[in-house]
Amino acid sequence: MDNNKIIRMENITRVYKVGETEVKALRGVSYSIQQGDLVAIMGPSGSGKSTLMNIIGCLDKPTEGKYFLENQEVSTFDKNKLAHIRNKNIGFVFQNFNLLARTTALENTELPLLYSNVSRKNAKELALQALSSVGLEGRELHRTNQLSGGEMQRVAIARALVNSPSILLADEPTGNLDTKTGKEIIELFGKLNQEKNITVILVTHDPDVSSAAHKRVHLRDGQIEEEEKE
Amino acid sequence: MNLLRTIPVSLRALSRNKMRTFLTALGIIIGVGAVISMISIGQGAKRAVEARFNSMGTNLLFVHAGSRSYRGRHGGGGTYQNLTPDDAKAIQEQADAVKYVSPNVSTRAQVIYGNKNWNTSIQGVGAKYLEIRNWELEDGIFFDENMVKIGAKVCILGSEVNENIFEGADSIGHIIRIKKIPFRVIGVFKSRGESGGWFNRDDMIAIPYTTAQRRITGRTDRIGSIDVSAVSMVRSVEAQEQIEEILRIRHKIAPGAEDDFHIGNMSEIAEGAAESTKILTILLGGIASVSLLVGGIGIMNIMLVSVTERIREIGIRMSVGAREKDILFQFLTEAIVLSVMGGFIGIGVGVGTSKLISHFAGWQTLISAGSIMLAFLFAGSVGIFFGYYPARKASKLDPIEALRYE
Known about the structure:
The complex is a heterodimer.
Chain A lengths: L4 E14 L2 E14 L3 E5 L6 H8 L7 E6 L2 E2 L5 H10 L1 E4 L11 H10 L5 H14 L15 H13 L5 E5 L7 H18 L2 E6 L2 H4 L4 E6 L2 E7 L1
Parallel strand pairs in A: 3-8, 3-9, 6-7, 7-8
Antiparallel strand pairs in A: 1-2, 1-4, 4-5, 9-10
Chain B lengths: L5 H10 L2 H39 L3 E6 L3 E2 L2 E2 L10 H10 L3 E16 L2 E10 L3 H5 L3 E4 L4 H6 L3 E4 L1 H8 L8 E4 L2 E9 L14 E5 H9 L7 E6 L5 H15 L10 E5 H44 L1 H9 L4 H37 L8 H27 L3 H6 L2
Parallel strand pairs in B: 5-10, 7-9
Antiparallel strand pairs in B: 1-11, 1-12, 2-3, 4-5, 4-8, 4-11, 6-9, 7-10, 8-9
Helix pairs in contact in B: 1-11, 2-9, 2-11, 2-12, 3-8, 9-11, 9-12, 11-12
């Protein structure tokens, strides 16, 4: 077994049942990601990239196939274990930021630590560190409605980073941002990938975003159409 | 997640919607307040009834002549005078659980003093009547054994009779005529207040039973009833059994045959009254609990709304690693905090209401620690019971759907 492979997927399928009919969102995806990769998963809407992201992020389980995360077969885990994996190993960044409303940047960043055994004092310290690593020093006590889009996405990244996960998983992270701010966010991902050696997976249909990645995977109709490496 | 850490999260969520939180808690506040004040009224009534019966003496027993059946035909109670002064004497001498015995002869007669006349109840009683009945004199003395023995023509007036005949003037030492026979007034009873209904305890005259037999009824071999006081309340059942045994032997009643007398028992009556006030308490408390239940449904309703409003938040929490259990506890804690907070305020409201009721309506109320605990525990369980369903609903959400929810 190759220990460098942080993610290994073997013949993953995901079938949704909508009433009587079955919808095959993924039809046998096999792919591996190395520790420290910066990967872009691309494809038009309906190609299955969101489904794949949900499975990689342990929000969902494959119908068939095996998914290994850091050599653990998480496709066999129950809901509680998956929640634990999401808490410890994975940091999510969403297109629409998904911050708690009317809550400060600091409290949002602390949120994952509420569900792990971190004392309140340590949690605050870790959250402050995470916020400073995304360049939000001095904005810690601002509420989400007092922040700009770019700042909100930075808070979301800080929240994703706070528990020192091995993987950052970003779903169209620039989708709700203007071009300039989007560029800054992508640069931030690149910087985190280089400096902290965090594996970053960007799910996007935007070529500008994917150009920052070292590897690109194109999905179409639930299957991998093309793999690119630089 | 540490359970205690859910509390600040819940408090913050509740403080975001203060008006809604207050209105939701109001259901519990009113419910708990109603339970506490209603139970306090019920228990106050019970206390009042008990106090009243205690003043009458709960160790009191009444022996009445029973019914005689003659060739299969039953007469009514007391239709047959079969108690004798010797029965009373035997009870006094043989029953060791008995303290005092008073043979009674009861009748009604016209009383005359000067130009006043009054029709009242004449009670021929024994010398220990005051002790047995736990009554007191306002003035004068009661007749002693010697006066009973000789059949002295002396009498004690009930306060109402005294008021009607003497109109406030001193009555002790004066002579009144009962059925035209002169009696000297030697004492006046303290007013007892009406006991309600059939017998006004202030409208009566007590004379020695021997005098009543000889001068008024004319039957010296019979008495109407016997008042008995047991040595203590605890031994009153024992006293009752002893009296029954003595009288069955004296009246030559065959084993298995019915008694020809009846023994009434004050603690029986007291228990009956206490039982009815207990039912009153349960009834009042039960009605009040319905409002607590309604308050609980209010909590459930608001929690369901709150869960729907916060589906996105639940999704976010799940995506960063909240387990089902964490979400369940978060919402359950909110419901419990709501109901417990409402419970605390409700205790204040309940205690205040009982005080107001006893102040303005003049009812005796009694707030016991038990009723407060009961209401509080009830409020807490209402929170858990009605909070569980919404909390469970929240915890069972699918994180992907929840994150996508608009």
